[in-house]
Amino acid sequence: MNEDLTLIGMEKGRQYETIISTKNEDGSKNAAPIGVIYAGNDKIIIRIFKGSHTLDNIIREKEFIVNITHDPELYTISTLGNLPQDYFEDDGSIKCMKAFFKCEVIRLTEAVKQSDPIKKKDEAIVIKAKVTDMTVKEDVHALNRGFGYVIETLANYTRFDIVGDDQKEEYIKKFKEANRVVLKVGTKEDIKSMQIIKKELMKKGYEP
């Protein structure tokens, strides 16, 4: 039976912020924040640069767990180092997750996106995987960072008419970067919101 990732708010083709847990060669557990693209049905795609423990573990074990959380502390600790081992369940998932799903690797492909700062050939691996089991303990939606960019852009917009020209230009630069990210990973609602803000900025005589 196919696992339905729409139950946790994932839309096909959109990218979501998650923490992926894997098993190290010595049997200990590892965690790292990684964006996951929902490819439809029970398939996902992730892209990891070479040299990471997570990638090494996935290549060796051919499986991993995607943990769904909105906890900023977990993202911070797992980015700057690794979560302590007592943060993990026996099955490798992270404790206190409202949802998580287990994946098996289907295909590994060497690839690099032209928009990346690192453009050397074979610097990254694209992993396509099948979701084999999903656990949803509480109602939760996968985190999409597009929403945060919309909120930050709106906060800047409310200050637009009361700041000087230099700050206005800074806000326009921030809008352009936010819009780039939202177009890449945001939901349809995020993208529509940025379009509305863009129209309002254009009414003020700016070309964001």
Can you characterise this structure?
- With about 210 residues, the protein is an alpha+beta fold.
- It folds into 2 domains: about 5-135, Pnp Oxidase, Chain A; about 145-205, Methane Monooxygenase Hydroxylase, Chain G, domain 1, CATH 1.20.58.
- It contains 5 helices and 6 strands; from the N terminus they run E-E-E-H-E-H-E-E-H-H-H.
- It has helices spanning about 55-60, 70-80, 145-160, 165-185, 190-205; strands at about 15-25, 30-40, 45-50, 65-70, 100-110, 125-135.
- Strands 1-2-3-6-5-4 form a 6-stranded antiparallel β-barrel.
- A hairpin with a 2-residue loop joins strand 2 (about 30-40) and strand 3 (about 45-50).
- Helix 3 (about 145-160) packs parallel to helix 5.
- The longest helix has 21 residues, at about 165-185.
- The radius of gyration is 19 Å and the shape is elongated.
